[in-house]
Design a protein that fits this description.
Blueprint (H helix, E strand, L loop, with lengths): L3 E8 L3 E5 L19 H10 L8 E5 L4 E4 L3 E9 L3 E2 L2 E2 L4 E5 L4 E3 L5 E9 L3 E2 L30 E5 L23 E6 L8 H9 L2 E7 L3 E5 L13 E2 L4 E3 L7 E3 L6 E2 L3 E5 L1 H7 L7 E6 L2 H13 L3
Parallel strand pairs: 13-21
Antiparallel strand pairs: 1-4, 1-12, 2-3, 3-10, 4-9, 5-8, 5-10, 6-7, 6-9, 11-12, 13-20, 14-15, 14-21, 15-18, 16-19, 17-18, 17-20
Pfam family, one: CT_A_B
Protein name: Biotin-dependent carboxyltransferase family protein
Keywords: ATP-binding, Hydrolase, Nucleotide-binding
Length: 310
């Protein structure tokens, strides 16, 4: 049987959270899903160390984290380039690497993207809360100690040590997004889209948007053309991942993993899960575009992506 091991947190950084696939089946209780803001990078990190779907990884936002290995381990890094180094030597994202006992893995600041995902062969260990390890700070659920908090100096991340993984050592170039490029995010039109003025709909899909500084795991505000809707407010209804709410100021808010479970603003529609993943890597001020996509096409695209990790 493999032995327990750990990584020690020497420096915590602004936000480093343990995330598995998410917490489902509990939204009727007012509990949101959590999970990785960028499931594409999260899934690739796990794949590169041979972990099955759903295994918990560490989501590192903005960098600033330093970890020290208590024993040898195989890890993988995917997602944003946060200037990671291994004992001072640069680490390239989207590949597997060995971390020896006593070595330091450090993250600096974002060079490209916002969130990096660190997976360890065998997976990080913690006690599930409502069936998941996903850390949601706002709700005080999940994470490395079950208290819904980010890592702090002196914390340890437990895992069950595993041998060298089989499978790919690095992700193919086609799987590695260019985070500096302007993304075109797929949006499935929603039930209230007909209530928006025609000129607003034209602007929504033909003019650029910028990511506002008011962005976190709960949602991302976009700034751009003012969207006008004949509906001021609605009876609150369930809110899914990627819902694009439009408050009275006409500037849309895209709701992400740690969103509230209900809301009453009219919705332009919903970003697809893969579009949400890409949005989660956009830095404040970055320009992007929205493009409409049908529900069936979006479903087929997601199924093809998901099958790639089976």
């Amino acid at each position: 049987m493999s032995e327990l091991a750990s990584l020690r947190v020497e420096q915590a950084g602004p936000l480093a959270l343990l995330q598995d696939a998410g917490r489902f089946g509990v939204r009727r209780l007012g509990v949101t899903q959590g999970g990785p803001a960028d499931p594409h990078a999260w899934a690739w990190a796990n794949r590169l160390v041979g972990n099955p779907w759903g295994t918990a990884t560490l989501e590192v936002t903005l960098g600033g984290l330093t970890l020290v290995a208590e024993r040898d381990a195989w890890l993988a890094l995917a997602g944003a380039d946060l200037g990671a180094t291994l004992d001072g030597e640069p680490l390239v994202p989207w590949r597997r690497f060995r971390l020896g006992a006593g070595q330091r893995l450090a993250f600096a600041t974002p060079r490209s993207g916002l969130r990096a995902y660190l997976a360890v062969a065998g997976g990080f260990l913690a006690e599930p809360e409502l069936g998941s390890l996903a850390c949601v700070v706002r709700e005080g659920l999940g994470g490395h100690r079950g208290e819904g908090r980010a890592l702090s100096p002196g914390d340890t991340l437990a895992f069950r040590a595993a041998g060298q993984p089989s499978g790919p050592e690095e992700a193919p170039p086609a799987a590695c997004p260019d985070y500096a490029a302007e993304p075109r995010l797929a949006l499935i039109p929603g039930a209230q889209i007909a209530a928006f003025r025609g000129s607003s709909l034209f602007a929504a899909f033909h003019r650029p948007w910028r990511v506002d500084a008011r962005a976190d795991r709960m949602g991302v505000r976009l700034t751009g053309p003012k969207l006008e809707c004949a509906i001021d407010s609605l009876v609150s209804e369930g809110i899914g991942l990627g819902a694009v709410q439009v408050p009275p100021d006409g500037q849309p808010i895209v709701l992400l993993n740690d969103r509230q479970t209900i809301g009453g603003y009219p919705r332009l529609g919903s970003l697809t899960p893969l579009a949400c993943a890409r949005l989660a890597q956009c830095q404040p001020g970055q320009r992007l575009w929205l493009r409409p996509q049908g529900r069936e096409a979006a479903h087929n695209e997601f199924v093809r992506w998901r099958r790639g990790f089976e």
